[in-house]
Amino acid sequence: MKNTNQQGFTLVELIIVIVILGVLAVTAAPKFLDVKSDAIGGTLDGVRTAMVGVVNIEKSRSIITSGSESTPSALDVGSGLDLDSSWAVRYNNSTQASATIVRVYPSAQAPAADGAFASLVSGDLGFDCYAAYDGSTGTITTDKNCG
User: pTM of the entire structure?
Assistant: First the structure.
């Protein structure tokens, strides 16, 4: 007498399960592949918040020392940020003595040198993933087009 009790899955059932898992992976993968740029954007928001903090501290310091509020230069803001090597701080000139704009980039997307930033002020060269402080207007902006 033959035993017809079989255990396990047939090859067709296994292939169907693999196809279903493949379809799920293809639909879910794009949501997880863009995690890096989201993380960079979130960190830029943190840098922007740090810039706001530096500006507020510098304004408070100027009130305490001189009795009047003054907007800090971009150089003060750039010097007040504590960043590791994965971030680059670039000023609007190479000497930094009269800097009015400072930008913080992820180091992989930053211009090669401070001098390269002079042309960025008049027309951006594609370095569009940064947090910036403009000392002449006191504005803080973030561009999170980090690709």
Answer: 0.68
The full 3-state SS of 19-66, as one line of letters, equals HHHHHHHHHHHHHHHCHHHHHHHHHHHHHHHHHHHHHHHHHHHHHHHH
Q: Containing domain of residue 91, as a range?
A: 32-144
pLDDT band of residue 20 (cuts 50, 70, 90) is very high
Q: Is residue 4 part of a domain?
A: no
pLDDT in tens, 89-111: 888 766 677 778 888 888 877 77
How far apart CA 131 and CA 80 sit, in angstroms, is 14
Give the mean pLDDT of the chain. Answer: 81
Round to whole Å and give the CA distance between 116 and 98: 16
Domain count, the chain: 1
Query: Tokens standing for 10?
Result: 């047939």
Q: Is residue 9 part of a domain?
A: no
